[in-house]
Amino acid sequence: MEINPILQNVLAPPVLFFLIGAISVIFKSDLEIPAPLPKLFSLYLLLAIGFKGGIEIQKSGFTDQVLPTLSAAILMSLLIPLIGFLILRFKFDVFNSAAIAAAYGSISAVTFISAESFLESQKIAFDGFMVGALALMESPAIIVGLLLVKFAAPKNRPKSRKMHLSAILHESLLNGSVYLLLSSLIVGFLTASSNPSGIVKMEPFTGQLFYGAECFFLLDMGIVAAQRLPRLKNAGSFLIGFAIFMPLFNAFIGVFVARFLSLGPGNALLFVVLCASASYLAVPAAMRMTVPEAKSSYYISTTLGLTFPFNIVLGIPIYMSLVNTIIPLTPL
């Protein structure tokens, strides 16, 4: 694996701001981001990426490559939590196994955005329809995780914690981040279809401000991730190993799926990153409410304190190397 892509990724402004945030916690700086701002920037990033993705989907259309890729994305988000659950059951009960597996089956929009920035810095082309895969991969893992609890949990679980399918679907499909991303995707698609001048008017907001907002958001993520690190001591070596092994394993599966789909290097990296990332927002919110028996310190500390920084600092260039090695081989 070449060292230059890793160095270029580490020295990119978003990653540097992430590290600056983490270092501020380690050296006990009084740097603090007021609570409403990270939420505002999170919503902004979802709106911007959804809007731009909708435009690109309208431009590309639903081609022979788009629909199989989106279908494969949904399939992976159903398969990954099942694999993770089987591995985690060696060490954890049903509740913790299902909650952690759901987190690793879902995705991280910020990791996806970081991968896009990496591709732009490397001048590698990618298609906007991959945002559709991002939007479609967040919910299925939540559904699988909750169904695993529903069917595998002890029979004596209190009736007050019994889950109904309608509640599971509502939480999975209408949580804030999924709703905003899908809505923005539709708005972008409709704007590109019927009102192209709207794209020009939105450009300063969704285009020129995007990179700076990403840096600011990652500064806050660095602070939060570093604050979570001490809790990893309670997770144990098995879960810490899982937090690194699972993304690499999922990336390995993802790159072969990308090769089967004949994706180009840029789209393949985004597909692999979606498979290898883990949710630290939508899934924890759903699991806290519906599976209170699971320890939130397990699935939040590992996804946010370990897997997320691993992916944006080292994972993305490693996955790019994997793509460059396997994709050029003879098609499956």
Explained architecture:
It is a single chain. By secondary structure, this protein is mostly helical. 77% of the residues lie in helices and 0% in strands. The protein has 16 helices and no strands.
Topology, please?
Layout: H1 4-10, H2 13-26, H3 36-60, H4 66-88, H5 94-105, H6 109-121, H7 130-137, H8 139-152, H9 165-173, H10 176-194, H11 196-208, H12 210-228, H13 232-260, H14 265-276, H15 282-290, H16 296-326
What distinguishing features does this structure have?
mainly alpha, single chain, 16 helices, 332 residues, 77% helix
Summarize the structure.
This protein has 332 residues and is mainly alpha-helical.
Q: Care to count the β-strands?
A: 0
Basic shape: globular
Tally of DSSP helical segments: 16
Please report which band the strand proportion falls in: under 5%, 5-15%, 15-25%, 25-35%, 35-45% or over 45%: under 5%
Q: Roughly how many Å apart are the termini?
A: 23 Å
Rg for CA atoms: 19 Å
Query: What order do the SSEs take from the amino end to the carboxyl end, as H and E?
Result: HHHHHHHHHHHHHHHH
Main sheet: strands, sense, barrel? none
Question: What do the pLDDT scores average to?
Answer: 85
Helix content: over 70%
Helix and strand composition category: mainly alpha
Regions with little confidence, pLDDT below 50 for 5+ residues: none
